[in-house]
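[step 3/7] fold_predict: job queued, chain A
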Amino acid sequence: MTTRNDIEVLIDETVVRAEIAALCREAQVQGKGDPRAAIVAVLKRVNAEGRETARTLLTQDRKGMLCAERLSHLMDTIIRIAYDHAIERVFKVDNPSSSERMALAAVGGYGRGTLGPGSDVDLLFLLPYKQTPWGESVVEYVLYVLWDLGFKVGHATRRVDECIRLARSDMTIRTAVLEARWIWGDKPLFEELRRRFLADVVKGTGPEFIQAKLAERDERHRRQGASRYLVEPNVKEGKGGLRDLHTLFWIAKYFYQVSSTDELVRLGVFSRQEMNRFHKCEDFLWAVRCFLHFITRRADDRVGFDVQRELSNLLGYQEHPGLTPVERFMKHYFLVAKDVGDLTRIFCAALEENHAKPMPVLDRVLSKAMRRRHKSIPGHPQFIVDHDRLMVQDDSVFVRDPVNLIRIFHVADRTELAFHPDALKLITRSLRLVDASLRENEEANRLFLELLSSKNHAEAVLRAMNETGVLGRFVPDFGKVVAMMQFNMYHHYTVDEHTIRAIGILASIERGESPDSNPLSVEIMKHLPHRRVLYFALFLHDIAKGRPEDHSIAGAKIARRLGPRFGFSPAETELAAWLVEQHLTMSITAQSRDLADRKTIRDFAAVVQTLERMKLLIVLTVADIRAVGPGVWNGWKGQLLRTLYYETEPYLLGGHSQLSRDQRVAAAKRELADRLSDWAQTERDRYMERHYSPYWLRVDIADKVAHAHLLKKSDEASRRLATAFGTKRFEAVTEITVVAPDHPRLLSTLAGACTAAGANIVDAQIFTTTDGLALDTIVVSREFAEDADETRRAGRICSLIEAALEGRERVPDMVAKRVATKKPPKAFILPTEVSLDNTLSEQFTVIEVSGLDRPGLLYDLTRAISDLNLNIASAHVATFGERAVDVFYVTDLTRQKIQTSPRQAAIKRRITAAFDGVAETKPARKAG
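[step 4/7] structure written:
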């Protein structure tokens, strides 16, 4: 239990007052005026000492609320001392009139008696009548002392009448007055404000205030991202944060006329257990906020990646198999945010029971007769419709039949009714009924599977099922990933939220929504067998995250165990397990392998084996990527997946061409010759000899035609350097084609120019002509939505590339200038991994490099590869948040694979050094 001594530990008010009195006596003896500078110095010292003590105590006891109360008391004491000095020595009035009095009140968060280390100090200087010269001087003096101490002070000087008038018309001011707390000065004046506020403002306006505060909360949630499971949450303003608890406090104080939330137990709003949960949530969130302010030395409430690791250490989290300390801390954070959501639902249910919360607009326009007709739900007498929301018939409905705990969510999906808050409250309080017998109940499992695979908008229902705790208890393996975050920049949501969003996206694909964004997936879903298996596999695809074992393999084991429980046959269960185990394969292959290399396609076909499995896998992959977070999915990734699908399809159908390599090259030449029918025969014949076999086999016909015209234009201009570009709106990329004399550093120069232009390369294809030219195609991420803007940007990139190739711009200088303006994320530490593989391609050695992304990385890697006397045939660049995965298909100068172990080891050392930004060393150079 917190005592007064616990709170007052930061400052000894008696000692400080005595020290200030001594300074004043000394100034008086010396004939000096007010020693304000010396007084400010004393207060600055004791404030700094007090805050350091608060930080030390927080590190020891980790009691967030106590820290916030201590800092509030410290501020109270400083204000009292400053005010008393002002009225007793600086502006002393021997015989004060009734107008020469004042009350000092804390408002805002400070009014609740809590203060963060970096929080603003909100003050109300309360006057009985209009402002007097004395009052103006005192207010100004106190404020200047606080400003000199470095505090950011929000303040207002008002009469009681003004406060009442403004509180009636302005909800923000009304909330501030509601929270006002007397600090010092004329207490009867403050009590007059409290009395008049309750009588003239609060009385009879409870529903109005509640509606305003809940609308304000909803708008705040919308601004913060509408999810309590964002991986960089705002501890104050975010969903499930402190402001949500404050909103409950405001409403409770306003409607129930209570001075503390503990009184809500007596009123029956919360049980004692729920009230304890309220205090635990508040204490944890305050601990996070106080530590956050101490770390950043400012009022920063965003729990960003850059501070999460330090916060987890300060809060004492330890390593756990499969989970780092920071991931354990963030899981706890999100469980607390979920608890805040539970408490909000329970509180809103109580308000509605007391008719304090306005009923839905729809209910106001329905007649009583219509409401009666909609009262019961056909086939489900245990549930009713109450004010257009799903409600239980009575409080024992779940005790009588625990299957109803699953059935109510099934009914919600089928009827598309929102839940009544009372129903959600009863569900939350009935979780003990979700036991082993309910998990094995055939009807319960059937209902859940129907809900999971519903074509309706089941995402919202599943989210409610998760937030009430039913989903995690009904499927305990899923319960282990509830509120689990992954400490990286790629995933925007916790594992459970990502999974539920993925299910929602899959349902939208099945409904045929946004066919332009997912044309192949939408078409496949129209005729897809085993759709329930697909939903089931997607539900399980990340269920084993946070375990020591690879989550795909562990997840497949869970699928094999759960499949029979949910009524799947052995074949269906094995199919679901295969999808879970391979759920990353298609994405990795599409984004980091050369899709023009037949070995890539053959290897992928060997994994999927049947066209039906590939159809299921591509739809699952699309839903998974799109659910990662805003901006992660784009048309380029979609195009890569479609290309992989269409290239693999003939292999799976057994109809892929068995023509020899020479026959396929000859056929490709004839196809292009037909497209160049307006060229002279001799001109066409010469052009057909300009390309080596790989070009004819790896480039599609549209690009071949464009390349032919570009090379012809370059020849006619007697210029061996030419650039062209094409914007692709659907794929969200721009293709840049470069013709230039071939040399080892060409791709490195192009990468450097793109880095300097701020262009993000995602793919590169390199070919050499028989007359010594290089024909390179670089794909960069699109930056502008409008084609005109993107065209201008592409033109600038091409100009910069030409300037670099002609020596008019020095690439290292351009890159250094660009890199200096962009800093890599400091919060993450990733090992650099370099691998060489000769089995992934029949012609090339595949070098795969992964590690922490940084500006200028691709330029450094391509420069290192050219220094090693390697030819790059294609490059494939992918970023997953802070992790970069760059893949290069290379040969040596004789166009052979890299076979010897010493040579491979030398390449790994050099590329690792380049990735890590280490200067090139002589041994590495010799090895190259």
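[step 5/7] annotate
The first helix runs from residue 4 to 7.
The two ends are 69 Å apart (CA to CA).
exit 0
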